[in-house]
Structure formats: structure tokens, C-alpha cells
Amino acid sequence: MRTLATTTAICVVSAAALWGQPAAPVKKAAAAPAKAAASAAKPQSVKDLRFPKMKELKLPEITEFTLANGMRVFLLENHELPLVRGYAMVRAGNIFDPADKVGLSDVFGDVMRSGGTKSRTGDELNELLEGIAASVESNIGETSGTLSFNTLKEHTGKVLDVFKDVLVAPEFREDKLDVALTQYRSAILRRNDQAAGIAPREFSRIVYGPDTPWGRQMEIEHIDRIKREDLFAYHQRYFFPSNILLAVQGDFNTAEMRAQLEKLFADWTVKQPPVPALPPVNAKAKPGVYLAEKQDVNQTSFRVGHLGGQLNDKDYPALEVMADILGGGFTSRLVQKVRSDMGLAYNVSAGWSPNYNHPGTFTIGGGTKSESTVDALRAIMGEVERIRTNEVTDEELRIAKESTLNSFVFNFATPSQVLSRLVGYEYHGYPRDFIFSYQKAIAAVTKADVLRVAKQYVKPEEFVVVAVGKPSEMKTPLSALNLPMHKVDLTIPQPKAAAAKADAGSLAKGKQMLAALQEAVGGADKLAAVKDYQHTAQVTVTAMQGVKITQISSVLGNAIRFEQQLPFGKMLIYSDGKGGGWMSGPQGQAPLPPQFAKQTDGELFRLHPRLWLSDRNPDRTINAVGDREVEISDKAGNQIRLTLGADNLPVKAAYRSPDGQQVEATYTNWKDAGAGLKLPHQFEIMQGGKKAAEIAIQEYKLNSGLTEEGLAQKP
Asked: Is pLDDT of 222 > 60?
């Protein structure tokens, strides 16, 4: 057993070896008097802590030059580790996305790398880079884009070749584009799952203006419009030498690296007009409380604030100190009041968050129990008013200034951070000595400065208060805050498929075709006699390497229940058809997420017996769109197109999934299903042009006596 003394000895020896000094012998200490030991163990207050003055920050020498093609290059030679890394910073960004294709930059940033180049597919690049422990990654942000690389020194030439290939000649292969579009559709459908994610998103949209480039939101309809040719056009417009800053740091000789880069990019001479200036931020949000109702939570997530300023504003240093005192850490006023004294929130914070090139925000954020929502918000407003009314204390000012200055040093802890920060200054037009002027300005902030900027820049009368929660569980209604009330619509818009042109003739023919289908499956009266429906199916999910799932689907009225036996356990999903429901699995039970409710609505619309009786539903339209094709749609935006065979039985159905993908179902093996009806027993599902699943119906049960209580019963 290792004793404390043994451990201490090892630590001393290790420390001595580290500094190249002989280890001091470990002496056994005499027992100290109890009183002295107790005194030494007495904890100090955080306020008693004092830290030595930071060492002066010195920046390493960076070599800068411009290649013949116009690309500016920044080199930082550093031999600490045998690594070389770098990135191209491109003047682009999602702020330039067309209004009808919001998300184009994000998709581009993903597929630029994953889609490979003219010479290698993305998968081939993965194999090559993983084999040498290297990486090349692409990303497009709000106001800039990057393509980065990271490699061991010995593979620098090979990785730079790949880096240049991706930068100059990305191929955006269709299969990788499809994957990216599917992922973004899924992300959009899941965006309301977590209340903590809704609050900052909606706050930003409201403050910047939901219809402006700074506040708009990606929707499925935007993703559906993005094509491969859009990515090529985007690359052509923004990726040219004079629009790029190239930064490289690591274990190399500067002169040799310069010669290598000059040779590497000598043949890339593309030219384009300069990228336009950023659009102005001029939205004026309506102050007040914006309530986003979410029924499956027992806490309220909130954001409070308004537009802020830029990093180079003259009062930014004082504003940062002010925000730190208000809500920057565990010693801040908001934490002490709302969390420690009142016990209303686990996390609450405030920040004056500027941007380099456009106004940022002043934001107070956190979460609290549903019942204490108004109490927490009132406490926050009280602290805001207090910091705008009276000077902060000497101790608060000292802690905030030291905290700000000490934390800033960590932005320059590594050569990569140093180079990134300085190239960022260059990209946004900031002076090279900005860091030093910032540090001096922080050190010079006074209590009077904090009070002045709080009064001048923090404007409670302009506050936007976004609250995401369950109003019925709030002890005091949000209206008690005496602020204008607004409702946030969290509905995720579904793209509506373009309906085929209809006239009296096509509508009449559509009903005739549907009547022929009804007769082919057993007759309209027998279809109408189906009161409840159930089938058991074996589903082989091709898209998941042939995983097999046993699923029982049960329907009564508008209530629907799915029981799935999956490899990892049993899943149950229930929807009451009114927006309510639940889901249960190995990890427990939860309310039915909105995207699942939307999916069950589509399943009910496409349910065979009732779909084939659409001519009896006044909210549905039946339109012939070809000799053997009939289109059925409803007022809620659901739509399906059926292709009939020579025997008038459906052979194919085409519709859109909730994430906007095109789905085609092929029906075969029609045979008796009971109740005098003929139903398909084999399905093949194609999604996004690829085979997604095979379904084999093992049993149909019609009018088996299902009850609402049975469908809603939890495990």
C-alpha cells in the first residue's frame, strides 16, 4: 500500500528531475501542535486571495508576405512539437446566403471536404489522412470561412497537396451532398427538443430581426432548394486568392515554407470582384416578453437583453467589466442574488458580447423552475437597476478587472491561438496592437466608468425577454411583469409539395380512379366498415446495414400506437391525434416530441383504408395527374401520389417524409387481409433515391376491438 509519505517523496523527486536539480531528502516531520494544525487548516475567503501580477504578454515574430496570385500569408515558426498546422481564412459567410437558400454556406462548409476533389473522393481523402494521423477540415461561419489542416512535420508536403486540392478543386459529390441535406433536415426537425437551445436562438432572431440576414432561420424549404451547382457557384464566387488569408505555424523553416507555398499556389490565379460589404444591422426589436410555450418541461429557460456593440467600441472595456460584475462568475451579483440568496436558479449569467464587425448583444441568461419564473426575472431586473444606479464596490471592481485580464491571456496560450488571434485582427481590420490597447483600457476602468456605461448602454426599456416554458405551471403569470406580451411560434414549417394543376375534368377522373381502386380492394362499404386497424410487420432497415425491427402499428380514430422491438430494446410511441402523446424506451419515458407528432399525422393521412376513402372527406382533393396516377391532398398540406396497376391496385405511392425527403413505396403481394379486403403484404421503401427499408406484413387485424385506453396504456 502506498503511503502519503511515499507519494510525497515521488512528487518531490519528479519535480526535481523536471527542473534538473537534485532531490532534497524527504524528512519525517515532527507532529505539530493541534492548535497550530487547526489554524493552518482554517480556510481563507475567496476575497482574501491575491495573485501575482501577470507577466507582460510578448507576441512572437510573424512573417507576412503576399504571393504572386494575391493571397496573403502569415508564418509562425515554432519548433516545440514536430507538428505543422494552418488554415485559409476566406471572406465569405452565411450572412451572404440568398434569402431563398438560407443554409447554403453551412452545407457548402460540410460538403467542401466530405465531397472530395476531382482526383479523390471524400472517403479516399479520409483513408489517406487517417493513415498519416493528419486532417483537413472545412467550415463556413457567419462572416468568414475556413479550410484548415493539421499534420506531423514529416508529412507536411503530402498534406499541403491535399489542402490545396480541396481549396482549389472541390467536387461536391452528390452522395455527400444528399447526406448533408438529410442531416440538416433532421436538425431542423429536432431544433425544439431542448428548451435551453430555443431561448438563445429565438432571442437572437428577435433582436436582429427574423427577416434580416442576421436573424433569419434555416428551414426545410431552403434546404430543398440547394443543388450541387449552387455549391460550385459559391466556390467560384468566394474562393479566389486575393480573398484569402493563409496562416501556417509549426515546425518548419520559414524560408523553406515560403518557397514551398509559392510553388504550390503558383498555378492558382483565379480572380473575382471583391466581396461586398456586410449588410447593416438596423433592426429595432419590439420590447416585451416573448413566450415560447413548451409543454414537456418543468423549467423555464430565459434570455433577457438587447443589441450590444462591437469589439472596437471605445467603451467596450468598461462594459466588459460591468457585465462581469453583474453576471460574469460565481462572485457576480446575479449569481449571489438569484442563485445563492434566493435559490431560484442553478445557472444565471450576464455578458456584453461584442462582435468584430457588427453589433453583438447584451444578454442575461439562465433557467429556473416553472413556478419561480417571474420571481427570477424580477430579481434580475432589480440587479440591472442597481448596477445602473449606484457605483460598484472597490472589491467588485478589483475582482472583475483581474478576472478579465487573467482570462484574456488564455487566448494566447499556444502558438496556434496567437496566430489565429492576430490573423483575425487582420481579417477584420483591427490594428496589430489591439491586444495591448485593450489591456491598458481594462486596467484603467474606474467605478465611475462602470456606472456611466451601465446607465448609457444598458436599457431596460428596450429589453427583449424570451421565456421558454410551461405557463400553466408558473405561480405568477408573465403578464405580471407589466411588459408587452408576444407569442413565439415554434411551429416548424413543412414544405408544401407543388400540387398538379386541377380542373373539373381531372377532378372527376380522379374520383373515378379512386372508385376503381376501392372496388379492386374489396369495395367502399367494406373499407368504411373498418373501425380499428392493426398490422404486425418485419422491417429490414437497409439504410442501417440490414437491422431488423418487429413493429406493431395500431390505429383507432386519430389515435395511433407503434410498438417496435429493436436490437437494443423495446420502443413504444403513442399519439392521441390531438398533439399529445408519449414515447417509452430503455432510457425511460418522455412526452411525444413535436416532430414525432407531425410524423404520426402523416401516417394517419396515408393509412390505407381511410386514404382510399378520401372521396368521402370534404377536406381532401382527389385529382388525376395521368392515365394511371391520382394525387390525394388535404388542407393540412399532406399529399400523396398513387400509381395504379392494370388491375387498379396501387403499385406505388410517392410522398414527402417529415424531413422533406422524397419517399417512394412500392406495394406487392396483395392478398386477403380479413374483413373482405385485399391489402399489400410486401413494401419496398426508397428515400432520397436510395433503398431505405423492406417491410413484410406478417398479420393484419381489422376490427379487432381496439380501445383508446388500450392504445394509451403505458408499459
From this structure: yes
pLDDT of residue 572: 93
Amino acid at 122: G
Q: For 661-695, what is each residue's pLDDT tens digit?
A: 789 999 999 999 999 999 999 999 998 778 889 99
Q: Where exactly are the structural domains of the chain?
A: 1-29, 63-264, 288-487, 504-712
**How many H helices and E strands in the chain?**
22, 25
187 DSSP 8-state letter = H
Q: Which region, left, alpha or beta, applies to residue 103 given φ > 0 means left and ψ of -120 to 50 means alpha?
A: left
What confidence score (pLDDT) does residue 55 get?
60
Contacts of 385 (CB under 8 A, 6+ apart): 460
Closest CA to 357 of 420, 417, 309: 309
d(CA 428, CA 179): 33
Tell me: pLDDT of 29 over 50.
Answer: no
Name the superfamily (CATH) of residues 288-487. Answer: Metalloenzyme, LuxS/M16 peptidase-like (3.30.830.10)
Contacts of 207 (CB under 8 A, 6+ apart): 215, 283, 285, 305, 306, 307, 361, 464
Residue 707: C-alpha distances to residues 484, 536, 554, 603, 622 (Å): 46, 17, 10, 19, 31
Is the four-CA dihedral 424, 426, 428, 434 of positive or negative sign?
positive
Give burial (CB, 10 Å; 0-12/13-18/19+) of 528: middle
Predicted local confidence at residue 568, as pLDDT:
82
> Do the Cβ atoms of 684 and 665 come closer than 8 Å?
yes
Taking the alpha carbons of 123, 125, 126, 128 in that order, is the dihedral positive or negative? positive
Across 113-139, average pLDDT = 97
Crossing angle between the packed helical segments 434-443 and 394-409, to the nearest 10 degrees: 160
| CA nearest to 660, candidates 186, 216, 226 | 186
Place of cell 442576421: 214
Which is nearest to 371 in space by CA: 481, 482, 465, 476? 476
Segment (H or E) for 402: helix 394-409
Rounded Cα–Cα distance for residues 268 and 164 (Å): 10
pTM summary value:
0.77
- Quote the CATH superfamily of domain 63-264: Metalloenzyme, LuxS/M16 peptidase-like (3.30.830.10)
State CA 53 to chain mean position distance. Answer: 40
Domains 288-487 and 504-712 share a fold: no
What's the CA dihedral at 584, 590, 595, 598 to 10 degrees?
70
CA nearest neighbour of 550 among 560, 564, 535, 540: 564
pLDDT band at 413 (very low <50, low <70, confident <90, very high): confident
Look up residue 681 and give its amino acid: H
pLDDT-derived band at 425, boundaries 50, 70, 90: very high
517-568 confidence digits (pLDDT tens)? 999 999 999 999 999 999 999 999 886 778 899 999 999 999 999 999 988 8
Euclidean distance between CA atoms 500 and 382, whole angstroms: 59
pLDDT digits (tens, 9 = 90+) for 345-402: 989 999 999 999 999 999 999 999 999 999 999 999 999 999 999 999 999 999 999 9
Q: How far apart (Å, rounded) are the C-alpha atoms in residues 329 and 342?
A: 17
Would you call 474 helix, strand, or coil by DSSP? Answer: coil
Grid coordinates representing 82 are 514536430
Instruction: Give the per-residue pLDDT at 578.
Output: 82
As its CATH architecture, domain 504-712 has Clam (2.50)
With a cut of 70, say whether residue 114 has pLDDT above it.
yes
Q: Which residue bears the cell 452565411?
A: 94
